[in-house]
Design brief:
By secondary structure, the protein is mostly helical. 93% of the residues lie in helices and 0% in strands. It starts with a helix and ends with a helix.
């Protein structure tokens, strides 16, 4: 198109030169008509080619516009799909947050239970054990203090030796039963605390696992 414009400008310049030299050399009427006919033909050809190229440009623009419309429609469909995925993701995230809140509440309950056991149960058992040990020590002191009296009584009342042996046996049995009961209660408390601590560790693991799963889900949806 630029070449045709230059050609048209050249023709106009030649015409101008012809007019400028009119006083010097005047062509014949046939030559002037022929030149005008040729110039007019070139102008017509120029405008015909210009119109053809303009139509081609307009058609290319229309095709590009149609392609852009199709691309926009496809993009709109993809955006709608992404919005649907985002809505599903929001619902899943809300569910995960609710589950995480429940796990956190359960974990807090376990921590409160463990604290209560540490402050109350073990303390009470320790106090009971200490009281029993003090009672046993006091009983041993009394036995040691009264051993001479007991020996005198045994010498004077030999018939009561069997009863005294039974008393000693009963005291030994009582001491063993008390020790076994205390040990059983301590073992039960230790087992309960171990179970609570295991549950607490599992809850912490679940709390750290949920954000990782949510992140993986977000990455999978965005990648998809």
């Amino acid at each position: 198109m630029r070449k045709h414009v230059l050609l048209l400008v050249g023709l106009l310049a030649v015409g101008s030169l012809g007019l400028a030299d009119e006083e010097l050399v005047l062509p014949s009427a046939e030559e002037e008509i022929s030149l005008m006919h040729d110039a007019f033909g070139q102008v017509v050809d120029f405008f015909a080619m210009f119109i053809s190229e303009f139509k081609g440009t307009v058609m290319a623009i229309e095709e590009r516009f149609i392609s852009l419309e199709n691309s926009f429609a496809s993009l709109a469909i993809k955006v709608d799909g992404i919005e649907a995925h985002l809505i599903q993701l929001e619902e899943r995230v809300e569910g995960c947050e609710s589950m995480l809140a429940n796990h956190t509440q359960i974990l807090n309950d376990h921590e409160e239970r463990i604290s209560f056991l540490e402050q109350e149960d073990i303390g009470a058992l320790q106090r009971r054990v200490l009281a029993l040990e003090q009672a046993i020590q006091a009983l041993q002191v009394q036995i040691e203090n009264n051993r001479a009296k007991v020996e005198g009584v045994e010498a004077a009342l030999g018939g009561f030796q069997t009863q005294i042996d039974e008393v000693y046996s009963a005291m030994s049995t009582f001491r063993a039963e008390v020790a076994a009961e205390v040990e059983a209660e301590l073992s039960a408390v230790r087992e309960e605390m171990a179970q609570l601590r295991s549950a607490q560790d599992s809850m912490w693991a679940a709390i750290f696992l949920v954000p990782a799963l949510v992140g993986a889900l977000v990455y999978f949806l965005i990648s998809g």
